[in-house]
Specification:
This protein is α+β, with helices and mostly antiparallel strands. The chain has one domain (about 5-135, about 150-360): Double-stranded beta-helix (4-Layer Sandwich), CATH 3.60.130. The protein is about 25% helix and about 25% strand. It has helices at about 5-10, 15-25, 35-40, 60-70, 90-100, 115-125, 190-200, 200-205, 260-270, 325-330, 340-345, 345-350; strands spanning about 45, 50, 75-80, 105-110, 130, 155, 165-175, 180, 185-190, 215, 225-230, 230-235, 240, 250-255, 280, 290-295, 300, 305, 315-320, 360, 365-370. The strands form 6 sheets. Strands 2, 3, 4, 5, 7, 16 and 19 form a 7-stranded mixed β-sheet that branches. A hairpin with a 6-residue loop joins strand 10 and strand 11. It is globular and about 65 Å long. About 45% of the residues are buried.
Length: about 375
């Protein structure tokens, strides 16, 4: 056996650790199969109604925690009352502070785009969140715009491309509603992984290939190229997924020389579509509706939407949270937070230097370059 085959075999051994941990976390899914998954209809998530956003009750907090750690990995909430006092911080911070403890919300990420001039011009001084809305650009103007800044379909993904898989929770809260559309759809990939392992062990194992999937954002300030396994054991020893479907500026490619990986890809892409079997969804149409997403395990997408012809537009506030203070310092990197037992086998992808600082994908050179 060659050296490359030996290290690949050692890297793929994490699949057993992943599966044992996943089955312990979701014992009800231990015998789940893909035919079981395909028979499950998509389901809307019921919101947890919060009477006082500044001080949710113990029961309201418990329900949100149960939903976040539950089989769907998403907590849907809605504010039933107004905030008691105005503040220059977004209302989601008050909820995050109340939930911090059992949920991984202690450390918020200050994203540079939260200070974007366009957002400040439209919405005033930053309230600490990134604003997601349709940024109209005249057709005759050749200006870069990410798919998140459009009203088009934003295909399935985890948040945080370039953040090394460290985003432990993503919170989205609706500030202003669209005229129609804008469904947010979710799929719990760790439970899907259990079902795949029970149905096709080779396809499941192939998803741990170190460069199974490559995601490229080719231009703009956020340009980056990330190669990663689709499933892996993260630096905290927990099962995690990295997955994207190409849309807008995002270019996604997969290893083409592994038939078992191709089988797994076809299945996951099918199950990552909006309203796919076993998926869940929300339709946020009232300010104060929001979701807390277990980002390392759950992928989400957003359907196309239209804004009100009278000028009201869909505006979503987004905030990322990480598990440690060290990760809260903003970074933009090509590596992933694969556990050191396995990452050391592929330093060309996961070496420590690829997990810190600021990197930029140089499209002309076809590689990432460290710039900070």
């Amino acid at each position: 056996m060659t050296g490359d085959r030996i290290r690949l075999k050692a890297f793929l051994e994490q699949s057993e650790e992943f599966l044992e941990s996943a089955r312990t976390q979701f014992p009800d899914a231990a015998k789940l199969t893909i035919p079981d998954v395909l028979m499950q209809e998509p389901r809307p998530l019921t919101p947890v109604w919060i009477d006082n956003p500044d001080s949710p009750t113990r029961e309201e907090r418990r329900q949100i925690e149960d939903d976040f750690f539950g089989p769907n990995g998403v907590a849907h909430f809605a504010y039933a009352g107004e905030r008691s006092k105005k503040t220059d911080r977004h209302q989601l911070f008050a909820l995050a502070e109340q939930l911090n403890g059992r949920l991984p919300l202690a450390h918020a990420v200050d994203h540079p785009m939260e200070q974007h001039p366009q957002a400040r011009m439209r919405f005033g001084p930053s309230d600490g969140t990134l604003k997601i809305y349709n940024l109209p650009i005249p057709l005759e103007v050749d200006k870069y715009r990410e798919v998140a800044e459009s009203k088009e379909l934003f295909a399935a993904h985890n948040d945080g491309l370039g953040y090394a898989g460290a985003v432990s929770a993503a919170m989205l809260v609706l500030d202003s509603a669209p005229a129609w559309g804008g469904y947010t759809c979710f799929q719990q990939f760790i439970r899907l992984a259990i079902a795949l392992a029970n149905s096709d062990a080779r396809a499941f194992r192939a998803l741990f290939t170190p460069d199974a999937i490559v995601a490229v954002r080719p231009r703009g300030k956020g340009a980056i190229r990330v190669a990663s396994p689709v499933l892996y054991v993260n630096d905290h020893g927990h099962p995690q997924t990295f997955f994207r479907i190409g849309s807008g500026e995002y270019q996604i490619s997969w290893r083409k020389d592994l038939p078992a990986l191709n089988q797994a890809r076809e299945l996951l892409v099918r199950l990552a579509q909006p309203f796919a079997p076993s998926s869940t969804f929300v339709h946020m149409m009232h300010p104060g509706q929001g979701v807390l997403i277990r980002n390392p395990q759950v992928i989400h997408s957003r359907t196309a939407f239209e804004d009100d012809v009278y000028g009201t537009q869909r505006v979503l506030a987004r905030k990322w949270f990480v598990a440690s203070a060290a990760d809260s310092a903003y970074k933009h990197v090509p590596g992933m937070n694969v556990h050191p037992r396995y990452s050391r086998l592929y330093p060309e992808y996961f070496a420590p230097e690829y997990l810190s600082g600021e990197w930029h994908f140089d499209q002309s050179a076809g590689r990432n370059v460290r710039i900070g």
